[in-house]
Each structure stands twice: as C-alpha cells, then as structure tokens.
Design brief:
Layout lengths: L3 H38 L1 H14 L19 E6 L9 H10 L5 E6 L1 H9 L3 E6 L7 H17 L4 E9 L5 E9 L4 H12 L6 H7 L6 H76 L1
Helix pairs in contact: 1-8, 2-6, 2-8, 5-8
C-alpha cells in the first residue's frame, strides 16, 4: 500500500486537474454559445441570397459561368477545417479518417494547425494552411475561399470541396464532405441555402415580381456566385467552431467527472492507510506496555 504522503500528493494533483478541466469546460461552453449565435445571425443573409439565386435561375444561361461548367476531375481541391488546439475529444481524428478514405489525387487548403500537421505528416499535397481563430472573421475565411477559387479557375484543381465537422447538437458533431464547385445548378444552390437557414423557398412568381436586376441577370449572377461560395465556406467555418467548442466542453466535463471519481477513490485509500497506520501505532504501544509489565 502507498504511504499517506504519496496519496496526499496524488490527491493534490487530481484536485488541480479537476479545477483546470472545470475552468476549461466553462470557457468552452461560453465560446460554444457565442459561435452558435454567430451562425444563427447569418440566416437572414442566406435567405435573401437564396431568393436572388432562385430569381436568377431561369433568366441566365448556366453554361456561361465557369462555376457551373462540369469538367473531368483529375485533381480534387479540398478545404479541410480543423482546430488549432487539441483537448476536443475525437473531433479532429474523425475528420482525418474522412481524409484517409480519399484515394484519388487531391490538393488541400487547411484551416487549423492540427489539420496542417496531419496533412504534412501523411505526406499529402498541401497548397496552403491558415490559422483557426476563436472568432472566425469573414475576412479571414474569404481569403481561403478566394484562394481555392483561384486554383480552380487556373486548372490546378478540378473541384472545390470542403471537409468540416457539421454541428448537430452539443453531443453530436458529424464529419462531413460537401462539393462547392462546380455547382450542380443555381436552383440547387438556392434550395441548399434555404435548407441551411431553415426557411421555406418562395414561389417563382413572387421571386420574379420582387427582383429587378441591373445591368442584367448575367452580370448579377457573376457577382453573386463568389459571394455565395464565400458565404458557404464561412458558414461551415462557424459550424466547425461550434463543433470544436462543444467537443471540448464534453471532453473537459468527462475529464472533470473522472477526476472527481478518482479523488473519491484516493480519499478512501488515504483514510484506509491512515487508519492502518493508527492501528499499527496502537498495537506497538500495547506491545511495548505488555513487554514492560
């Protein structure tokens, strides 16, 4: 049995661990709430963009825009969104499994240090890596989206796809893969935005009666599709942040509960050791008195 001094030292260490994990749990919960509020704040913007895309669907020739033209896929372009820090359970490892399942040639642009380290360690083709700040600013995410669009238009990659942890709830974050470019069609993009914002698509007649495009629909579409792409990447980055903070909060709560349980076991062991020591001292005193008599 360990000495009482060793047990006291372990109890102190476990108490410190429990205190740290509890603080990290509270911080992650606060950040998760802010990330969810930020994601919800963009729903009105997504709804309006969806209505504009729906009104444009029958007014332009889709084959004229490079974002809508399908071509042979030789090299896939993938945006991978991970965290900068660890201590968030299996969140990043689940994303890495999704990357490992990709057997075709691919080039990666990574948001988050953990993802960049994995891509480099697994000897995959890394085009660029970007930091994952706690507050995902639209200006920072737009740089990533525009970088991959440039590679797509230059022919370096033939698709633009995104891998991110889709936020379902506090306990569930699903690693997901979605194709951004080429777009299937404008109507599909509009429906996807309505689904993401939780709104009902407007009818064609209402959309056409409320929209007036100047100078013409083709020029508006040319300006709108890059905004749509930037918005999609930004939305997934916000979901990734909410997923990261949720996973970290759950992981820290589990660590705190385990520390509490271990602390109870150590306290019981300490009391047993202390009781055994007192009993031994009493036996030694009684034996000494018996010998003296």
């Amino acid at each position: 049995m360990a000495s009482t001094r060793d047990i006291r030292r372990r109890i102190k260490s476990v108490k410190n661990t429990r205190q740290i994990t509890k603080a990290m749990e509270l911080v992650a919960a606060s950040k998760m709430k802010k990330a969810q509020q930020t994601a919800l704040a963009g729903r009105s913007y997504a709804t309006l963009m969806a209505e504009m895309l729906a009104a444009l669907a029958d007014r332009v020739e889709e084959s004229q825009h490079p974002f809508l033209v399908r071509r042979e896929v030789r090299v896939r372009g993938i945006i991978l969104i991970t965290s900068d820090k660890g201590l968030c359970g299996p969140l990043n490892s689940n994303l890495f499994k999704l990357v490992t399942d990709i057997k075709t040639p691919a080039k990666y642009a990574v948001i988050g240090r953990k993802g960049a380290q994995f891509i480099a360690r697994s000897r995959r083709d890394l085009l660029a890596d970007f930091p994952a700040h706690d507050r995902a600013a639209f200006a920072d995410i737009r740089v990533v989206a525009e970088f991959m669009v440039k590679k797509y238009l230059e022919g370096v990659v033939d698709t633009v796809e995104i891998i991110w942890p889709r936020f379902r709830n506090t306990l569930v974050q699903v690693p997901s893969l979605m194709t951004l470019l080429p777009l299937a069609d404008i109507q599909a993009a509009s429906s996807g935005l309505h689904q993401a914002s939780g709104t009902v698509p407007v009818t064609k007649a209402i959309a056409e009666s409320q929209m007036l495009f100047e100078p013409d629909a083709a020029h508006v579409l040319e300006a709108l599709l890059p905004l749509y792409l930037n918005r999609e990447v930004y939305h997934q980055a916000l979901e990734a942040k909410a997923s990261e903070h949720s996973a970290r909060m759950v992981a820290m709560k589990t660590a705190k509960d385990n520390a509490t349980k271990l602390l109870g076991d150590l306290t019981l062991e300490y009391n047993k050791a202390r009781q055994a020591g007192i009993t031994q001292e009493i036996l030694e005193i009684a034996a000494a008195q018996f010998s003296a008599a």
